[in-house]
Amino acid sequence: MVLDTTHYNPQHKQIIDDLVGRSYTFFQKLKLGGIGSKRMIIDKVSPNMQNVMNTVSDINYGNIELRPNGILVMVTKGLKSYTWAIPYYHLVIYKINGSSIHAQGKFVHFRANKTFNENKKFFGKLYDQKVKYDMQYKMPDALWI
Fold this sequence. Notes:
The protein is built from four helices and eight strands, in the order E-H-H-E-E-E-E-E-E-E-H-H. By secondary structure, the protein is an alpha+beta fold. It has an eight-stranded antiparallel sheet with strand order 1-5-4-3-2-8-7-6. It is globular, with a radius of gyration of 16 Å. The mean pLDDT is 89.
């Protein structure tokens, strides 16, 4: 779900908390070594996300924040901010010439450049958190007779 988070809205905060969980506490953030990525350049988005991108030839930037049950992808469009809340059970990540985040019929592709390379450690944390979340719901091994 993509929300306009330019101005504080308690309803948007509640929606985000319900989808991906409340933000980590200060001590959890320290333990994880940070929960936010550095700013990355957005190369391409799905057609249904074009409304949150700059219409002129400006560079589009975005960043990612970890939450207990998902991630937040923040995109800036001029003076407006948009937040895409993605629960881990919807999240699919492809690493092809950068990184591409897919969920809910939408995608955002981040360009592979210097800022993307600085976020390799963050993407490692993201993969670890997703695996940890998925392991909670691990299906039992099938029994063959």
